[in-house]
Design a protein that fits this description.
Chain lengths: ~325, ~210
């Protein structure tokens, strides 16, 4: 048996180099699309262009304020950054941590520019009762979410100054327990129709938050039922001590391993700066399972290289079609 | 820059940590800068706290420079933390710190007005010098730290502790300006390369197939 702890020298940029080698890139393509801070964006022949994000007008010329790719949609010109904090958009599914209980709202940390607010009136009351929230509900707010707990929610609205209002008005949103959280740069996450995924074959649920937090947890069929029961005692008759839902049965070792393997698959994708979406995560998961890569070897350079090669092949075949 | 090595880290923009510092929506983001020198950064090992006068002054100079570079009005009610650590000091640490911080901000996708670059210039034995190293710096001549926004051709920082005749000052300042432009060019090239590498890894451009 080899040593429990392996020490490797830190090589900055080694992971990018890996995928570059797999893609067989000698030097980065020099394209007009890329701009850097302070670069002028050519606007010849485009009268009356619209100034988008990441640009400013100096002396009648369009100048980039961020590094990234120039995108043109009709007359709108904007610069897409490749690495930035999460920018909330209405309808995004997000995963966040409750930072604070303040008055009628929870403050939720979304890893965004500002903390988001989840109003008491924007949560689903147990049993789906529709009524105004009174002072008693306000006192019992901790029965729903306490500080430090993870929740999934949807962005209800984004205000002009960038502050965000959330809502959990659906049974699928709510508290997250017994699982693993993986942090991913938000730019690596694609906005999709579906952000809740249940992988029946593995017995795992996956929530890919648009803000770069990904939740991996063993599937619990009783989840919806449990949260409804637990909240009922608190919200309806104001009985705070009966609020905790019964603890779910602890997941088995096999289940936990699957969860860890999936989380590691997501980490592998992050290391290689590749998009995180269910198909990609599962592809990495299967590659690891097929080749018998041990759980802890998944983040080793050898496996990263194999994944990079796989990705290069996939892109190559996509080009031919 | 030479033998000077600096590490810069940017955290944020994030929510303001101290509620009392919260500004109104019109005023924009708060910049928080911290400059520190590692104990092993100079030839003599010396324990330096982050609270000493020198580093407080330099943190302030860096903050003032960055506040003019960042488009703070786009990020109301937020805070950007910049931590700069000098790993190896060989003169011109404040300029290297500013350059590193600007690069870090640009790489973090924070909107910037311009790619501000900074360099020190001096005057020793009748010769104007650019980017002084430690030996040149300790020669006792004047030390002029300059930061320049190259596109607007505007100086955002000019710092000098000693006296200098006006005409010599002009030549030294001109030299520093040229130096800033050169450094900004190098920074731009590096950032562009970094962006391209990221884009290739992400498969955003088709040109990746060799």
């Amino acid at each position: 048996m080899d040593a429990a702890v392996r020490v490797r020298a830190h090589q900055p940029g080694a992971d990018i180099a890996l995928i570059e080698r797999a893609l067989n890139v000698q030097d980065a393509p020099n394209s007009e699309q890329f701009v850097c801070v302070g670069d002028e964006i050519p606007t010849e022949g485009e009268e009356g262009f619209l100034r988008g994000h990441g640009t400013q007008v100096v002396d009648g010329k369009l100048v980039a304020t961020v590094c990234g790719l120039v995108q043109r949609v009709n007359k709108l010109i904007y610069v897409k950054t490749l690495n930035s904090r999460y920018n909330a958009e209405q309808g995004d599914v997000v995963v966040g941590r409750v930072a604070d209980v303040a008055g009628k709202a929870w403050r939720v940390d979304l890893k965004s520019r500002q903390e988001a607010k989840l109003l008491l009136s924007a949560v689903h009351l147990p049993g789906g009762i529709q009524r105004r929230r009174n002072a008693e509900d306000e006192l019992n707010m901790r029965a729903f979410f306490r500080e430090g707990e993870l929740i999934s929610a949807e962005v209800q609205s984004v205000h002009g100054d960038g502050s965000v209002a959330l809502h959990t008005r659906s049974a699928k949103y709510g508290k997250l327990v017994c699982g693993q959280l993986v942090e991913v740069p938000p730019n690596l996450i694609k906005r999709q129709k579906q952000h809740f995924h249940t992988i029946e074959a593995l017995g795992v649920e996956l929530i890919i938050g648009c803000n770069g937090l990904v939740w991996v947890a063993p599937l619990r069929p009783d989840r919806a039922a449990a949260s409804a029961d637990g909240g009922a005692g608190a919200g309806a008759d104001g009985d705070a001590d009966g609020a905790e839902p019964p603890p779910p049965p602890p997941p088995s070792r096999v289940q936990l391993e699957v969860v860890c393997r999936l989380s590691n698959a997501i980490r592998v994708l992050t290391r290689l700066y590749m998009h995180v979406y269910p198909a990609a995560v599962l592809a990495v998961y299967e590659a690891a399972a097929d080749n018998g890569v041990a759980l802890r070897d998944m983040l080793e350079p050898e496996f990263l290289e194999a994944v990079a090669a796989q990705e290069a092949q996939r892109r190559g075949s996509a080009m031919q079609e | 820059m030479g033998n000077t090595k600096v590490l810069a880290a940017v955290f944020g923009p994030h929510a303001v940590t101290r509620r009392s510092e919260q500004r109104s929506a019109e005023e924009g983001a708060i910049m928080v800068c911290e400059y520190a020198m590692a104990a092993f950064s100079t030839s003599e090992r010396r324990r330096r706290g982050k609270g000493d006068r020198r580093s407080t002054e330099l943190s302030m100079a860096i903050r003032n420079t960055l506040e003019q570079a960042v488009m703070t009005e786009l990020l109301p009610r937020s805070q950007i933390d910049v931590y700069v650590q000098v790993l190896q000091a060989d003169g011109g640490t404040r300029c290297a710190a500013i350059n590193a911080a600007v690069l870090a901000l640009a790489a973090a996708g924070v909107p910037l007005r311009d790619l501000v670059a900074s360099v020190a210039a001096g005057h020793l034995d009748g010769t104007p010098l650019l980017d002084l190293n430690y030996t040149e710096d300790s020669g006792g001549g004047p030390d002029l730290a300059v930061a320049l926004a190259p596109r607007l051709d505007r100086l955002v920082l000019v710092q000098m502790d000693s006296r200098l005749p006006v005409d010599t000052f002009q030549t030294v300042l001109e030299l520093a300006r040229e130096g800033c432009k050169t450094i900004s060019g190098i920074m731009r090239a590096k950032l562009l390369e970094h962006t391209q590498r990221l884009a290739v890894a992400r498969g955003l451009v088709g040109g990746g197939q060799g």
